[in-house]
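ok posting inputs for the arginine job
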Amino acid sequence: MAKAWGGRFQQATDPRVEAFTESISFDARLYEVDIRGSQAHARMLASVRILTEEERDQICSVLDQIRSEIAAGQFRFTAELEDIHMHIESALIARIGDVGRKLHTGRSRNDQVSTDLKLYVRDAIDQLDGLLAEIQRAFVGRCEYDAGVVIPGYTHLQRAQPVLAAHYWLAYCEKFQRDRERLADCRKRVNISPLGAAALAGTSLPINREMTAQLLGFDSVAANSLDVSSDRDYLVEFVFCLSVISAHLSTWCEEWIIWFTTEFGFLKLPDAYTTGSSIMPQKRNPDVLELIRGRTARVMASVPQLLILIKSLPMAYNRDLQEDKLAMFTALDSLSACLELAPSVIAGAELNVKKIESRLEDGFLDATALMEYLIRKGVPMRTGHETVGQLVAKCDAAGCRLADLSLVELQAACSCISDDVYQILGARNAMKALCSYGSGGEASVSARLDEWRKRLG
Ligand code: ARG
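and the output
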């Protein structure tokens, strides 16, 4: 098969070189964006009279046919044609000859592949935004399901202060909201058109880059043709965004894996989302959660992979860049699979409320509330801290809770304590006392929940 670039070559390419340099095995999935880009390019070429209107229409309709054939699995791919761009162009030429040979006027595969990637990433960002909103909706759904449930909040994985369960769920909504915003911000830099930068220098032909940018829905046109061919910042940024999302997913999974242990016993997972052991008949393992946590490795690895790829590349295009797609697709596919599964796991789990409640008074979750009570009575914070610390030590030794202490015992520690102290002792009371903006108490959580409901529709 004749190569599109074969003019100056006398020898055929070694088949091992073809196999080594091909990218069709992983870039075929760019076919749809590649055709979108080519059709916009053809329309622009006609508008500047490089193509006639008939030629443009012929090219666009044959590209439509090629798109349908690829979508239907009726298109033959071969390593000889290197990549998706060559496959589509040579199919076009095979069908309409010289007219097809005009399509690549005023562009190069260098700006073409970047255009394809940007269109692909832009579509992916829009899809990811929807998937993240689904996860947020699942957590909001949990807030309604678990209304009024109080659970321990932890720092250092040690019992700290009690909060509403909904406060946990909404914490995840916040994290995934920042992820959506981060993607939206990345989208701004993705949405700048490389098309028409040609190989590296632009072109002497009268192309109209604004027009192709507009046809493809780009916000603006990249201003420096040399920069365009070597720019993969947007991919680094994109996979970084994916990595932060995977970190958030992994945190959620880790937490639920811990909650699912017999030691914690906070969580029940449906059989459909757990798997068994081949030797221990009693086992039910949280494999889905573990694998979402584990997939993070593939997603995060794409960040150093791309940074190492672009480090030290001279201007402008270098063939190394062909490897960018492998990193990006791996990250995107791994993360998308997790995001698609997550909402049903979130919605399908159940808090073991009885067990949580039966242990809620363990671990002095109300100690901070007692200290703040003392502060409200005029005791300096550090003094209150010390007083409550001593009371906790006393209870610990006696095997009782702060709320079990009599008023006389409490007053022995601090004379300002009166019997209204029992309104803040106990985990539920301590949760109810939380009233600052953004806290895990009732008013704050329900206000934020209303906002989330409105925002997520
Ligand atoms: N398959 C190539 C890639 O993915 C397309 C660009 C090739 N450009 C070139 N000058 N050989 O990067």
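notes: The radius of gyration is 30 Å. Strands lie at 150-155, 158-164, 192-193, 220-221, 267-268, 350-351.
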